[in-house]
Amino acid sequence: MMTDTPYSFLLQNIKTEPxxxxxxxKVTAGTRISSExxxxxxxxxxxxxxxxxxxxxxxxLHGKKAFYIRNFHIExxxxxxxxxxxxxxxxxxxxxxxxxxxxxxxxxxxxxPGDMREVHITGxxxxxxxxxxxxxxxxxxxxxxxxxxxxAYSAIELDxxxxxxxxxxxxxxxxxxxxxxxxxxxxGAEIFDPEIRAxxxxxxxxxxxxxxxxxxAHNLGIGSNATMLYGHIEKYSHRIDHLEKLRSLxxxxxxxxxxxxxxxxxxxxxxxxxxxxxxVEDMRNYAVSRIFxxxxxxxxxxxxxxxxxxxxxxxxxxxxxxxxxxNDTTQIYSLAGADDKNPVINTKGLIKLIEDAGYLAVExxxxxxxx
Length: 371
Ligand code: V47
Ligand code: SF4
Hints:
Blueprint: H1 8-13, H2 18-29, H3 35-44, H4 47-62, E1 65-69, E2 71-74, H5 91-94, H6 102-111, E3 118-121, H7 131-144, E4 149-152, H8 155-165, H9 169-178, E5 183-184, H10 194-200, H11 207-219, E6 223-230, H12 236-253, E7 256-263, H13 279-292, E8 298-299, H14 303-306, H15 308-314, E9 321-324, H16 347-356, E10 360-363
Parallel strand pairs: 1-9, 1-10, 2-3, 3-4, 5-6, 6-7, 7-8
Helix pairs in contact: 3-12, 3-13, 4-13, 6-7, 8-9, 8-11, 11-12
Bound molecules: ligand V47 and iron/sulfur cluster.
């Protein structure tokens, strides 16, 4: 018998094959689904069923709340030693090269409105921006704005920084933590499967290194986010493998704050010929992620990537967080053809976006404490 929830009636009336009923019963009862069941959902489930199940999971955790944060970005450089085929941002793709000095980055911090709670720092992997430079950056920002949460450097940037400095992951992370690092963003995860990774980003850190860096961070009390780049050459089985690896790491550490699916955007890169998956696939992907990652407290739709309207829709497919009040300093997606060419939104705009979609806008800090 299906557990009684506001969705029981709906679920009982979905005319489905037994496999769907079994999965629906598990999700309704709060029982974890297996990788095989996750794959089955990806391969066979329709949007209606996925939306219903994902909403059930999301509302059990957060009710009608949808979170946002006041944050801004610093992208130190677009110079990158790597050659990811999906990237439209690095200097070897755009033909333009830029790097920010320490003073310029500190100037950005000084100019940021006083109510900002978080700065997200990430960019290309510059050959000479080293551990000392990035430690100093953190320290100087903390001096200027002690209350600002520093979410900085993807595992790919960290891997290069630590290798060059000749320190272990643990030593490197301890140094950065002592200089003010609060958490690590989710970038660089792409797809963990080695065969797919070899075809889309063959020269940067392996998936297992990404996982090792995040696990070590969690063990040192540094929280982090996780991402997955989807909608290119990967198959559903690779997505499930990726989600399964994140779920088991989260079982060990509980250190991930949120999961952010990143839709492959096809403009101006070596994988443009693939085009992009449609909005239905985006919503299915959010929903399966929400259902499968039962130990992740939050699922984030990064609105500069899918656009404001699709972000509103995503709130009905398992998403509970729309990231933040980004200014136009982030270029990763605008260069790759994001729907939003000028990703700027203020707090009022973000609240309206959420409320117009029928949800309750809740401001959060970087640890998802409600403000
Ligand atoms: O790792 C690069 C992705 C990531 C493309 O932690 C692309 O809160 C799609 O990780 N199409 C960096 N994606 C950005 C990132 C991120 C974003 C928002 C929030 C957080 C967080 C982290 O951007 C890269 C790569 O996976 N990316 N090029 C592209 N053409
Ligand atoms: Fe460099 Fe990141 Fe672009 Fe890869 S995705 S080439 S690591 S900037």
